[in-house]
Amino acid sequence: MEVKPRPAPVEPTPSLAYAAPVTSLRTLSTPALALAGFLITLGAGAWTSQVRFSTRVHDHSFHETAAKSSDCVLRYRLYFTAPPGGYSSRSEGLNYYRFRAHLKFASGKVFTTPVFGNRAPGERVYARDHDTRDDACWASTEQKVVGLDVEACRGQRCTPRPLP
User: Fold this and answer.
1) Which of 46, 109, 144, 151 is the most buried (most CB within 10 A)?
2) What single string gives the DSSP state of each residue in 91-125?
3) What is the pLDDT of residue 109?
4) What does pLDDT average to in each consecutive run of 10 residues of the chain (164 residues)?
């Protein structure tokens, strides 16, 4: 899947079978996120949590995470800035990055996004919905984003290496 200019949501692409060299990055301290975030209760089974922060992976600056629910469906957005220099290689295959994010919630729940790709610089957003009905409908319970880890690699055929 491709990440497109903000605010257009993007769809995932299937993972590829082989990996290239990767770089990973741990991000964000939980207290910083907890202080930066806010939670608004919208009613039974509906909540919103939005967090602003600053972290980098492959010079991509992730700066905001927004999550909300609609019954059992988790709706999330990851906002980031992709650097122009990261997309100017003569080798076309290097002008592409793949990411996987782990959203951490105050309840202890960790949600891992599918791998998503980006092929252009600028302000970007990755937006998706995830139905939690097969996982005890956990999104229907109030949640608050308190952390985010991002794994990344460069190249269309790479696979982000899991964080330790």
Assistant:
1) 151
2) SGGGS-EEEEEEEEETTS-EEEPPPEEE-S-EEEE
3) 96
4) 50 31 36 36 70 90 95 96 94 93 95 96 96 96 93 94 84
Q: Which two tokens stand for residue 47?
A: 């909540």
Distance, CA of 76 to CA of 112 (rounded, Å): 11
- For residue 111, the tally of other CB atoms under 10 A from its CB is 19
pTM of the model: 0.72
The Cα 25–Cα 163 span in angstroms is: 8
Q: Do residues 82 and 121 touch, judged by C-beta distance below 8 A?
A: yes
E runs forming strands in the chain: 2-5, 22-25, 38-43, 46-57, 60-70, 73-82, 97-105, 110-112, 116-118, 122-131, 145-154
Quote the tokens at residue 104. 């951490």
